[in-house]
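Weekly structure sync, notes
Attendees: PL (lead), two postdocs, one rotation student
Agenda item 3: pending single-chain targets
PL asked that the sequence for the first pending target be pasted directly into the notes so everyone works from the same version. It is reproduced below exactly as submitted, 148 residues in total.
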Amino acid sequence: MRVLMVSKACLVGAYQTKLEAIARCDDVELQVIVPPRWDDPAGSVLLERGHTEGYSLLVDPMRFNGHYHFHYYPRLPRRIRAFRPHILHMDEEPYNLATWLAVREARRQGVKSLFFSWQNIHQNYPFPFSRLEKQVLEWVDYAIMGNA
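Predicted structure, written out during the meeting:
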């Protein structure tokens, strides 16, 4: 199974350990797209290559870096076409522009998709986030919800 994951969090080395664990599965071919940095309000977080065994770590530019809900990856449609994943895993919330664009593109290319969210309590978001979330929830095939 080919899995394409998109994650700004996985530019941090400690978060890459889960990627190595996934890549150890015999039936998984994993590619992960990360930005070269995340422009956090507290300061830029630069890419670390701490745990990269067994999978491909791809570094792609991000538009609107530092804007949690409006950033996106302009090269993602090309990456999906080139890798032809069975699953596109967006490591982002369902009300996020990056998730909406990615899930929409996955549907266009016949790829199943999922998102990850810590937001596991029902909440009504203002427009445009409510619209993005509604469509992502209609289009997506799977979801992973975290809790503390």
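Discussion points:
- The chain has four helices and eight strands.
- The beta strands are 2-6, 29-34, 37-40, 43-46, 56-59, 87-90, 112-117, 142-145.
Action: rotation student to compare against the earlier draft before next sync.
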